[in-house]
Specification:
Low-confidence stretches: 1-9
Radius of gyration: 21 Å
CATH topology of the largest domain: Rossmann fold
Number of helices: 6
Shape: globular
CATH architecture of the largest domain: 3-Layer(aba) Sandwich
Strand order of the largest sheet: 1-2-3-5-4
Structural class: alpha/beta
Bound molecules: guanosine-5'-diphosphate, magnesium ion, zinc ion
Mean pLDDT: 90
Strand content: 25-35%
CATH class of the largest domain: Alpha Beta
């Protein structure tokens, strides 16, 4: 039996596939017999781009997703009502920011917390580097994240994406960030056939308009793929449990587990290793304060 035939086998009559696009409750799934347009059994939602699924063909080109395979990672954000999955099984989050329209540091911090809590690698891309003066200011803001150990790449998606390309190898990456930062432009530069729609930003509102309405996965080569996702203007963290929040702060990692109390929340508990590290200058006051703010 060929490898391909074997890998397409699963429960009786089911095909294994990967979700490559999520349009509301409709999903495109690539399988050994081609791409199927699927719905989830029982009209449930919660399937995401990047999911490995078992599906059953119903008619030519159409099918039903029966089960979602266990995920290696799941990247969520919450809004006031519920949690929303952005992508499944990604190994890298590419946080795209730009000097124009202005980006929110709060969104960056929140996005990093969500990524760290799932142990997903993060790369920060400062796009629109052709806008030299504002980019310099943005770089100063991003210095903090560089100091925390995150890689910050500068590029101009309308010119090329050469600096980014080596970082994509052997990863399933997802482009995330506010609308208008240039995620879809960057994707088109990487994969011209993708033809993602992009939008001129409204300078009056200093915000991007939402042109990308659904997530889609594009294969870069055999072992690398990238997902473009719709932008967001809020990034709730309600889905992260209080006891896991500290793990969202990468520089806290060496101290977690070394506090006197195993259920320490690093507020003002005696013998807290995180608070001690802040006092020794190993953790910035600003970040500890931000952690306390999120904790509330
Ligand atoms: N100056 C400049 N503009 C860019 C660059 N990349 C994207 N843009 C513009 O930014 C706007 C928003 O881009 P888009 O890709 O739709 O952003 P998205 O919402 O993050 O997907 C569009 O008008 C793009 O032409 C860049 O490198 N330099
Ligand atoms: Mg877009
Ligand atoms: Zn503690």
């Amino acid at each position: 039996m060929s490898r391909r035939a074997k890998s397409s086998q699963s429960s009786v009559g089911c095909l294994l596939g990967q979700v490559i696009a999520a349009f509301g409750r409709h999903y495109s799934v690539t399988t050994a017999v081609g791409t199927l347009s699927c719905v989830m059994r029982g009209k449930k939602s919660g399937v995401a781009c990047g999911d490995q699924v078992e599906c059953r063909m119903t008619t030519q080109g159409q099918g039903v997703i029966e089960t979602i395979k266990p995920r290696n990672s799941q990247f969520y954000r919450s809004d006031a009502f519920k949690e929303k999955i952005i992508a499944a099984n990604v190994t890298q989050i590419i946080l795209v920011v730009a000097a124009v329209p202005s980006f929110s540091e709060e969104l960056i911090s929140r996005c990093l917390v969500a990524a760290e809590s799932e142990n997903i690698n993060v790369l920060i891309v400062l796009n629109k580097a052709d806008l030299i003066q504002p980019t310099q200011v943005a770089l100063d803001t991003l210095l903090l994240y560089r100091e925390l150990g995150y890689t910050v790449l500068q590029l101009s998606a309308i010119q090329n994406a050469l600096t980014l390309r080596p970082y994509l190898s052997n990863h399933l990456s997802v482009l995330v960030g506010q609308s208008g930062m240039g995620k879809s432009t960057l994707l088109n530069t990487l994969i011209p056939e993708a033809n993602r729609s992009t939008a001129a930003i409204s300078l009056a509102l200093d915000s991007g308009s939402h042109t990308t309405t659904y997530s889609q996965l594009y294969q870069l080569d055999k072992n690398s793929a990238i997902i473009d996702s719709p932008g967001f203007q809020e990034f709730g963290l309600n889905h992260i449990k209080e006891e896991n929040l500290a793990y969202g702060f990468v520089e806290f990692h060496p101290y977690i587990g070394h506090c006197k109390f195993s259920n320490c929340r690093h507020r003002s508990e005696p013998g807290c290793a995180v608070l001690a590290a802040q006092e020794e200058g190993k953790i910035l006051r600003k970040r500890l304060d931000y952690y306390h703010k999120l904790l509330r």
